[in-house]
Amino acid sequence: NKRDGDEKFNAKSLPCYEMRVPQQSNSSDCGLYVLKYAECFCEDPLTFDATEADCADWFDREGVRKMRKYLKKLLQKVADGDLYT
What we know:
The chain is 40% helix and 5% strand. By secondary structure, it is mostly helical. Strands 1-2 form a two-stranded antiparallel ribbon.
């Protein structure tokens, strides 16, 4: 069903897929992992096929550690008012 040119979101128009992705080993890194998933997906979204995706090797724990370090530096810059320096 279309309304004013916009499609209605439902299970048919927006399917859900269960994918193999790297898993966190603790209860505190879920946000970092979500950011890494988004980063990896956005690197090449046009060729990404969720129906055949095996993303278990997208990144390792070192990639998450680097993301944590990067975000810490970024947040410190924001707190210091030095975001654009």
